[in-house]
Amino acid sequence: MEALKELFGTTTGLLSVFTIGFATVVVVYIYGFVKRRMDEDARNAPGK
Prior knowledge:
By secondary structure, the protein is mainly α. It has a domain at 18-48. It contains 2 helices and no strands.
């Protein structure tokens, strides 16, 4: 419980939460972007 209090109650903890959230959003965005490009490439591949 003390760890959660420190995580959400201090500046360093809040910056850590923000960083983890931001990194998660970036990973999800990049995954979607790459998946869309791969699907597009597969549709436009010669011989299909």
